[in-house]
Each structure stands twice: as C-alpha cells, then as structure tokens.
Amino acid sequence: MESGMVSVDRWTAGSQVYFLTHLHADHLSGLTSKWSRGPLYCSRITAKLFPIKFPGFDLSLLHIVEIGQWHSVSLLSPSSGSSTAVSFMAIDAHHCPGAVMYLFRGEFGCTLYTGDFRWESTSERAQTGRTMLLKAMKDVQLDMLYLDNTYCNPTYCFPSREVAARQVLSIISSHPNHDVVIAVDTLGKENLLLYISRVLKTKIWVWPERLQTMHLLGFHDIFTTKTSVTRIRAVPRYSFNIETLEGLNTMRPTIGIMPSGLPWAPKAFRGMEKLSLESPPLLLHNRWHTGVTTSSTSSKTNGGSLSSGRHDHYIYTVPYSDHSCFPELQKFVEFVKPINIKGIVSSSACNVDPLYHFGGICRIQQASKLLCQRLRIKRSEKVGVIDMKSSFGCTSTMQLGRKKRKRQISRAAIHVSRVRLLRRERQGVKIVDTDPD
After folding, report:
1. What is the pTM assigned to this prediction?
2. Where are the beta strands (DSSP E) in 209-361?
3. Which domains does the chain have, with CATH numbers?
4. What is the pLDDT of residues 393-418, one digit of tens each?
C-alpha cells in the first residue's frame, strides 16, 4: 500500500484515514483530544472507552468498525491521483477490551496488521478469529504481515492465560491472612480479575478511574473502591514496587503479584549472573512454574522496579501475558503464510526481527533463494565462457571485461525486486515494491 493513504496506530500528518487497534498508551503517541487530521476507525468497545482517555475529543471523527464485517473506504492514490477502494475488516485480537487486528485488501494486495494480540491454541475466541481470518483470506495470498513481535524470541514460552490464572489463584489461596496487591494496566487483564472474584467469591478493589472503565465494560457488582470490603486490590503498574509493599507490610501482611510475560526471559536481563529463585524454579526446560522473586533477584518491569539488594520476598511473578509467546507467533505465521513480514515493536530489547525466525515460512524468502540460484547459474555460465576464451590467450582487456560483467551481475542481484519476481510467477495483485512506512 502506498504511503499517504492509511496509518495504523501512527498519528503523524500525511495519511487520509487512521486506524486504532486498542487504547494502550504505546499505541497512542501523538493522538490527543484536539485531533483533527482525519477520520479515525476503531472497534465499538474502543469507541465506548474513548471519552475517558480523550475528554473533549470530537466524536464525529470516530468511525466504528464492526468485528468480522467488511468495510470500504475510497481513497486517492498519491502516485496517480486516481480513486482507489480499500476494503478492511477488524478481527478480535484477544489482547485487551476493544483490541482488534486489521485486514486490508485492494489493488495494492492484502495486508494484515495484528496490533498487540494473544491467540492461545486452547482459546475458543482465538479459534473464532482463525475461522474468520481464514474465510476473509480465502483464495487471497497475504502480501504483508505486520506482527506483534513483543515476545518474538524462543526464550519466551509461557502457558495460556487460563493456566497462569490458576497459578495466581494458588498464590492467593496459600496466603489466606494476607492482603493481595495485583499490578494491572489501565486496561487489560479483566478476565484474570473476574476469575479471581468468581472463584473466591469476593469483590476486588480498583482505583476510581479503573472503576469507571469497569462500569463501561459492564462489570457493576464485582469491583469496588472501598478497601474495607476486600483484601484483594488491583493497582496501577506504576505504583507497584518494593517500597510500596514494604510500607504496606508495616501495617498488614501483604503480598504483591505481577502478572506479566516480561520478567520471564533470563536472556533479556544481561548481567544477572547471580539470579537465584526459590523453589519451584521460574523456568525449567521452557515449562513455566509459579516462583517467588528473592532478595537477590533484580529486574525491571513496566512501571515498577524490583530492586536488587532489598527484601523482595513480598512479590510473586506469574507468566500471565496478553501478548502471544514465541510458539504461538510461529503457529500464527504458519497459519497466514505471508509473503513478507515486519515486526511492529522495535524499542524492546527482548524481541527479534520476525524475519530472523520466520523468514523460512515467508514466500519472499523462497523467492529470494530461487533468485539467488538463478543468478549463480547465470554467473557461472558467463564466467565459463570467459574462461574458455582465456585459454586461447587472456588479454588485459578480457580480464577487465570479466570484472565488469561480475560487477554488473552483482548490481543486478541488488536491484532485482524479489516482490516483482513473485508477482510475475503467481500473476497476482499489484504490490508496491517500496516497503510502506
């Protein structure tokens, strides 16, 4: 797709329409209540929550995208100036309330932008999404996949959220006389809190802004802002740290639970040679278990710090993540079989370029290998002809010619478009050779 037409989770000027996958802060940079650059498409739940995040926003700019339905918008091609239709569909990303991925189709081909997503193999919602995506891509090759590569590293192999939720419940149940503090974002992990509330038959404390969000999501009798009616509190991540828990423990016995996939890859935290963990271990042959961080543990989490050299036995970390882990990413790429793939996360030290791990699945890699084989064959044939001639007396002019031909072949290898090669082979839809922003 040409630049200057569509932007997803990017809010700089220059596009004709804008798409929002979900309401997490790292996808909102540049979007403000004074937005006026163009129509903004999002899911119905996101639109419902929008006024909380952006009070005073011109809601006439919001366009709701119903999940599983094709929508269409007419845009102008920046290169030709002619009108072109872009069809798009929102599919449940199973990340946080309102989170969706977008499938785009048009003269440019077919593109899928996942945003943040979690598709466990055991999830019925994810299976519904797979069926929806399979139907939408019927008889169409996916040209470009923009993938949530937050955990695109084989180190990350954690269990489903259902299993992790049971681990959280086990920790709470084993501390019947403790207050419990659970770190959550301003949006997300609602299912974990609902599970705890249902099984333990108790309400859960949340801060006032979070309670407003819960009410908009339809949860009216489960959450409260009264600390006297429950021992379980869901607190913002930024307030979750050792110092806070130490202060709480001077008043009442309190434990903290950090549900996240982030602290679970030893390779992501270099310089932690003295990492020690209480039994059972956090990571054993890529199988996850509940563990306790000890005083010698040192790690950084999003919004809170677990400092080394402090009394850290108050905090439990559990691999409950709203992002797909590495095996799930691999299965997803195998499912959609894109020609090319790009990661949407570049700032995290934990992820790897998806092409590094999944390039063999993408057809652009297959085309690249075929192209290289053809160039090697042509190169060897031309060099063979030169060598035959040189056997009858190789002059300096012939040597220069041979070097010149080699340089020409090398330049050809650089400039031949792999996407164009694929297009000729499969005679498919037109794809812009220049990668989109």
Report:
1. 0.75
2. 223-224, 232-236, 254-259, 283-284, 287-288, 291-292, 299-301, 304-306, 315-318, 340-343
3. 6-154+324-364 (3.60.15.10), 161-318 (3.40.50.12650), 366-400+407-426 (no CATH)
4. 444 444 544 444 444 434 444 443 44
